[in-house]
Amino acid sequence: MRVPEPLLAHADHHQFVVGAVTAETYEPFESGSVMEVGQNFVTVKTGIAYGPVSLT
């Protein structure tokens, strides 16, 4: 079985965001140690300050 290639995201300020371009990412509904969730977005907190993050 072939292992799929990991996806890459670009971390900025120890995080990356998945969501709508128009999402207000500074207003999360819920916040935890690993992610924040708000209307039309999820912010994933990483241990990497800047650069590519491997999503496996």
Structural class, from helix and strand content? Answer: mainly beta
Query: How far apart are the first and last residues' alpha carbons, in Å?
Result: 16 Å
Number of strands: 6
Can you give the helix content as a percent range?
under 10%
Could you characterize the architecture of this molecule?
- The structure is a single chain.
- The protein has about 55 residues and is mainly β.
- Helix content is about 0%, strand content about 50%.
- The protein is built from no helices and six strands.
- The protein has strands spanning about 5-10, 15-20, 30, 35-40, 40-45, 50-55.
- The strands form two sheets. A four-stranded antiparallel beta sheet has the order 2-5-4-3, with no helix packed on it. Strands 1-6 form a two-stranded antiparallel ribbon.
- A hairpin with a 3-residue loop joins strand 3 (about 30) and strand 4 (about 35-40).
- The radius of gyration is 13 Å and the shape is globular.
- The relative contact order is 0.37.
How is the secondary structure organized here?
Blueprint: E1 7-12, E2 15-19, E3 30-31, E4 35-38, E5 41-45, E6 50-55
Antiparallel strand pairs: 1-6, 2-5, 3-4, 4-5
